[in-house]
Amino acid sequence: MSDDCIFCSIVDGEIPARIVHETDDVVAFLDANPLARGHTLVIPKTHAQHVGDLDDDLAAALFAAVTELTPHVQSTVGADGANVGINDGEAAGQEVPHAHVHIIPRFEGDGGAP
Ligand code: 5GP
Ligand code: ZN
To answer: Is residue 17 lining ligand 1, measured as CB closer than 6 Å?
Structure first.
């Protein structure tokens, strides 16, 4: 838990979120400002800004959740594909300093990568 971290507050239930998946290690919830229908964020429950700060077990749990959820998110919204990615660091566009993976459903003809 890090004070003033929005995603830690979601983990702790202090800020509401549309949670779609949860384990002991990770939680996934719908993005509040989705780039596409079903845009989902997958985060470790432990606070760390960078994916490189995660220990191996937590990194593995995060990736396992992403691989499990990606096809599920796609089928739920009828998507044809998905962008799965991480903005790591402010220079890369990371706005929330708690590591997270975006799953952004994509639809044929939707105009290219966001
Ligand atoms: P970043 O640019 O850090 O990779 O992406 C942060 C994402 O978190 C953005 O897509 C933004 O819409 C989402 N986000 C920011 N604050 C909240 C929040 O309080 N709740 C939810 N569900 N998503 C949030
Ligand atoms: Zn945090």
So the answer is: yes
